[in-house]
């Protein structure tokens, strides 16, 4: 079963916007489109054109396939947990 690409894009646009402190208007500027279009992508009422997705992925230095296929929020949380585990391992080694 193919994942819902619109849902992934919507969630990732929201994650990128919020985690970088961007308004929807600022994200629209980055994508060189208007705020109404960004709203429709986030709300899954329209599919973002490839050109818009490329601009966003370039701006955030993110591979395009990750923007459309990977749950960035989940990946980010997993990376943070891994970093915390590494810090705990180092701390344990120094306490021995």
Automatic annotation (TrEMBL):
<protein>
    <submittedName>
        <fullName>Helix-turn-helix transcriptional regulator</fullName>
    </submittedName>
</protein>
<dbReference type="Pfam" id="PF01381">
    <property type="entry name" value="HTH_3"/>
</dbReference>
<dbReference type="GO" id="GO:0003677">
    <property type="term" value="F:DNA binding"/>
</dbReference>
<dbReference type="InterPro" id="IPR001387">
    <property type="entry name" value="Cro/C1-type_HTH"/>
</dbReference>
<feature type="domain" description="HTH cro/C1-type">
    <location>
        <begin position="13"/>
        <end position="67"/>
    </location>
</feature>
<dbReference type="InterPro" id="IPR010982">
    <property type="entry name" value="Lambda_DNA-bd_dom_sf"/>
</dbReference>
